[in-house]
Design brief:
Layout: H1 6-48, H2 69-83, H3 99-110
Length: 118
């Protein structure tokens, strides 16, 4: 009976490492093929789709006092550039609506105060 030596273990590790590398390369090749196939289908769909007419620019509505209209215009332009034509539905000040959280926090913190005499 042959003893299993350290060199045998090292050799087995290299064999397993080689198998993992080969499987990883095969999986990467399959994924690359799927990406190429899907991009070709998307290009074909784009070529056959009729050209869309440009969406009309939304009409600017009066904004609440306190928010400069220049800021709204810059935000709208950035959104339109990054995600296409979108509308800003609601804008409000950031400091609104925190009263209930501070009240709950105060109640929670005061619940830890030591009680009077027992």
């Amino acid at each position: 009976m042959k003893n299993y030596t350290t060199w045998d273990a090292i050799g087995d590790m290299f064999i397993i490492y080689g198998i993992v590398v080969v499987i990883s390369m095969l999986v990467a090749a399959v994924i690359r093929g799927i990406v190429i196939l899907l991009s070709r289908q998307a290009d074909k769909a784009e070529a056959t789709a009729p050209a869309k007419a440009a969406a009309p620019a939304p009409v600017a509505k009066p904004i609440a006092i306190g928010i400069p209209q220049e800021h709204i215009a810059v935000i709208s332009a950035a959104v339109a550039m990054m995600m296409g034509a979108h509308r800003i539905v609601h804008i409000e000040m950031a400091n609104r609506g925190f009263g209930w959280t501070s009240e709950a926090r105060t109640t929670h913190h005061t619940s830890h105060l030591p009680r009077g005499s027992h």
